[in-house]
């Protein structure tokens, strides 16, 4: 039965429910909680649990009615969401609370934020060129000079003997001359630059794809995710304000700036998550049971310290791993399609 709520779609990301709790249902819950309160109340001259209702109710009526409302509303809302097959992406926005002093049905409105539906655009329009990297002689010399400054190994200058000793110390195989060390340093710098260039191209590709697909995350969802980051930060700091202040001071940053960064990070993370799910759906990217089993074995092999191995058999956890793997697979396919890698 849907008669306890009505639904109104405000826009593509906001749904408003009007929830009605009948006065009979509310009164039944109220009496049950009142009896529980009375059973735990002790007043001189009366046995515990035998205090007359009219002596206690006037003092506790308002608080008990509030508790009843706080218990019933989430239950009613959850039922409505399940009936409508809605998955909120931010906490409910309770717009009005009823007057609990009146003997009538209770009505309140609740705003629900959902993720809008997006369609995958033509990714052929996403044009990204990865930067070509090169390594100059100066960069190699600077790197060698820094190494020599920190580890001269008793040599007065950079030469073959120093290069061989340096290679042995940092365990570089096949390097016995300065020229060979120079080649190794050049190759290492180039590889690092390649990684940076690749990540830069991937980020640019994602930004263009998100813009092309007009992926706009509702602000309440961004704010909620940012708040979760702040809660995690405070938790990691042990809820110690002094520790938090010291961290901020050491990193020359304010809490206000941290919140700006959390908002930015939350927005980008949600955009990426939505796009990868959309891409996986449109490209029919799946993770088979066999793929999942292999991934779980890989996780288990890297987690020998986990004493309770039953966690690896938890179905909810398995599905979480599957979802992560689908997005990882979608990421690789997207990069391959756009960058040819």
Question: Which labels suit this protein?
Answer:
about 350 residues; alpha+beta; 4-stranded antiparallel sheet; 4 strands
Topology:
Blueprint: E1 5-11, E2 14-21, H1 23-39, H2 53-84, E3 93-94, E4 106-113, H3 137-150, H4 160-169, H5 178-212, H6 219-236, H7 241-250, H8 255-282, H9 289-301, H10 315-339
Antiparallel strand pairs: 1-2, 2-4, 3-4
Helix pairs in contact: 1-2, 3-5, 4-5, 6-8, 8-10
Q: Roughly what percent helix?
A: 55-70%
Which percent range describes the beta-strand content? 5-15%
Overall mean pLDDT:
89
The rounded distance between the terminal residues' Cα atoms is 53 Å
How many helix segments? 10
Number of DSSP strand runs: 4
Which runs of at least 5 residues are low in confidence (pLDDT < 50)? none
The helix/strand series, from N terminus to C terminus, equals: EEHHEEHHHHHHHH
- Derived from helix and strand composition plus strand pairing, the structural class reads alpha+beta
* Gyration radius from CA atoms, angstroms: 31 Å
Strand order of the largest sheet: 1-2-4-3
Principal-axis shape: elongated
| Major sheet characteristics | 4 strands, antiparallel
């Amino acid at each position: 039965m849907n008669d306890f709520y009505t639904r109104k779609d405000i826009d593509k990301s906001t749904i408003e429910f009007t929830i009605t709790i009948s006065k009979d249902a509310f009164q039944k819950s109220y009496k049950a909680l009142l009896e529980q309160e009375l059973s735990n109340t002790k007043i001189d001259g009366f046995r515990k649990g035998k205090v007359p209702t009219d002596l206690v109710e006037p003092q506790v009526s308002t608080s008990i009615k509030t508790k009843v409302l706080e218990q019933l509303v989430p239950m009613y809302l959850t039922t409505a969401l399940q009936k409508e097959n809605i998955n909120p992406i931010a906490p409910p926005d309770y717009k009005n609370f009823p007057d609990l002093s009146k003997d009538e049905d209770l009505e309140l409105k609740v705003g629900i934020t959902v993720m809008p539906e997006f369609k995958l655009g033509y990714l052929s329009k996403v044009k990204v060129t990865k930067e070509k990297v090169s390594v100059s002689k100066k960069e190699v010399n600077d790197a060698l000079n820094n190494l020599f400054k920190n580890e001269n190994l008793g040599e007065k200058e950079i030469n073959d003997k120093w290069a061989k000793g340096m290679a042995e110390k940092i365990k570089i195989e096949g390097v016995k001359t300065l020229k060979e060390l120079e080649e190794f340093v050049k190759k290492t710098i180039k590889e690092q630059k390649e990684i940076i260039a690749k990540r830069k191209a991937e980020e640019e590709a994602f930004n263009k794809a998100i813009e092309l697909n007009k992926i706009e995350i509702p602000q309440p969802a961004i704010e909620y995710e940012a708040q979760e980051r702040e809660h995690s930060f405070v938790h990691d700091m042990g809820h110690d304000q002094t520790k938090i202040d010291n961290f901020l001071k050491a990193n020359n940053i304010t809490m206000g700036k941290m919140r700006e960064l959390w908002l930015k990070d939350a927005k980008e993370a949600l955009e990426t998550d939505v796009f990868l799910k959309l891409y996986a759906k449109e490209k029919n990217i799946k993770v088979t049971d066999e793929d999942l089993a292999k991934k779980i074995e890989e996780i288990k092999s890297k987690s020998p310290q986990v004493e309770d191995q039953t966690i690896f058999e938890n179905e909810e956890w398995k599905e979480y791993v599957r979802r992560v793997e689908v997005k990882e697979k979608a990421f690789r396919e997207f990069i391959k399609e756009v960058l040819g890698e």
